Amino acid sequence: MADAALKIDREAAPLGAPEPAPMLAVNNIEVVYNDVILVLRGLSLKVPQGQIVALLGSNGAGKSTTLKAISGLLKSEDGVITRGDVTFLGERINGVSPDQIVRRGIFQVMEGRRIIADMTVMENLRLGAFIRRDNDIKNDIERVYAYFPRLKERTGLAGYLSGGEQQMLAIGRAMMARPKLILMDEPSMGLSPLLVKEVFGIIRQLNRDLGVTILLVEQNARVALSVADSGYIMEQGKIVLDGTAAHLAANEDVKEFYLGQGGGEARKSFKNLKSFKRRKRWL
Amino acid sequence: MTFQLLLQLTINGLIIGTLYGVVGMCFVLIYKASQVVNFAQGEFLLIGAWTCWWLLTYWQIPFFWGFLVSLAFMMLFGLALQIVVLRPLIGEPVISVIMVTIGLSIFFQALMKWMFGTFAQPFPPIFSVQKVDVFGLQVQTAYLMSTGVSLAIMAGFAWFFKYSRMGLAMRATAFNQQVAQSLGISVRQVFALSWGISAAVSAVAGVVVGIVNGVSSALSFFGIKVFPAVILGGLDSVLGAVVGGLIIGLLENLAHYVDSQFLKWGNLYEIVPFYVLIIILMIKPYGLFGTRDIERV
């Protein structure tokens, strides 16, 4: 693959040729919850059209908050963007109401699936197409069933589906909206390794077949980097490292802190805690 | 003769019960969509009935058109009420919102008394026959119409929530507002619409009762009677509201029968629904059809 297209190194940007404008750009945003809790402190990232971009980081780093800042769902949790802006297809979208953001083509698959438990699979899918008024909805439902044949057999309430099926329904529901960009929050949560593999296979397929751009938030760095084109690593509300997926996966620190491999005995020992701390700051 | 009376009262109970059911559905609609316990539900009946009465007597509009205009007006009234009064309260504690609906109830009752006086006003005669004979029982034509209209409204509600895009959006909003927003549903629109529909449909009941009993502030008592019905059915169940309404309607009339034949206490009719309310809250606080969350193990 052309490495130049994937180059998102911030230091290198001024020197290189002007990149095509990314589909989504988050510029230096600051997010505050309840007027006092500063969660994102100057976060920037770019999602180029047609790519899968992974956003990795530990618990509480602010990954989900970043997605909610983009989709506008922050407001219902008493959060607000106090600085910086979010642009989608060249237009500023912070401050736009969440339902309008969905209409512009950004669809968030929230953490924990959040399917509507007291509705059937069919009703959930039809709700996914809420913003559409065209006549293609029936065909799209069939398309979702083609992706997830298992869902077609489930006629009861969605609340009784297994975790994996619920995740599939959540992804299918996102497909129904025909979004340009899907924000996916922890699709691997609570799934068995085999199902994780299946779900990520589908995510890649969605990206390739339908050309949907995906911003993927994950704890499971290994599987996320295996499908992503590029990635960002965030800590305490900031991006600390970015690069192509291959580049990140090869990085010693990423290997040690997120992939749980490499490093050797010396760096695992408590004696070398100083080195750990230094490295944790991603000098 | 007493059997005849029992039968008559049973029929009355079913007819009144469907009306309770309709108003109960309206109450549940608002509660489900926006989590507001609306103590001003009865005033919707009152305002709707007065509007229709005013159109019919002052403007001499034929009943059919006057009725439709009143419904349209009540729809707009409900929307406006939500947008002007309740929307700014989103995010405030539940108790504040409840106090506001109680305030609205008192305000509108006083307003109606100020505008139309305190005396019950009869509707101009609408049907050529006042009563019809059904299997040897006397049934008011207005009630017969109301049962037809109520059943149609119930079927309409069922269709709306099962198949229409907006109905599904309302259910999604009731399930979880953030999830609804993430699907592109405007929660504000859903709230406003639920108030609009609720006001309009309540007005149907208001007009029907008004035709039979005359229009007076007694109509708003219907809004209070609906409480036992919806709590019996389960506060958040539309089906429950209908079943609860029917049961309360029947119970009321059977109590009347027992009272008039045997007990001779007087007025048992009025208070039985509230005894039922207390008993239900003690033994089955979720009601018959109230939802408990699906818990997957």
Short description:
Chain A is of the alpha/beta class and 283 residues long.
When the domains of chain A are counted, the total is 1
* Low-confidence parts of chain B: none
Shape of chain A: globular
CATH class of chain A: Alpha Beta
Greatest interface and its participating residue counts: A-B, 30 and 21 residues
In the CATH classification, which architecture of chain B applies?
Orthogonal Bundle
Structural class of chain A: alpha/beta
Q: Find the CATH topology of chain A.
A: Rossmann fold
The largest sheet of chain A has its strands arranged as 6-7-8-3-9-10
How many angstroms does the end-to-end distance of chain B come to? 58 Å
According to CATH, the fold-level topology of chain B is: ABC transporter involved in vitamin B12 uptake, BtuC
- Count of discrete structural domains of chain B: 1
The oligomerization state is heterodimer
Q: Compute the gyration radius of chain B: what is it?
A: 19 Å
Count of strand segments of chain B? 2
Q: How does the overall form of chain B come out from the CA principal axes? A: globular
CATH homology-level superfamily of chain A: P-loop containing nucleotide triphosphate hydrolases
Q: Helical content of chain B, roughly?
A: over 70%
- How much of the sequence of chain B is in beta strands? under 5%
- Give the overall average pLDDT of chain B: 85
Keywords (chain A): Amino-acid transport, ATP-binding, Nucleotide-binding, Transport
Pfam families (chain A): ABC_tran (PF00005)
InterPro entries (chain A): AAA+_ATPase, ABC_transporter-like_ATP-bd, ABC_transporter-like_CS, BCAA_Transport_ATP-bd_LivF, P-loop_NTPase
Protein name (chain A): Amino acid/amide ABC transporter ATP-binding protein 2 (HAAT family)
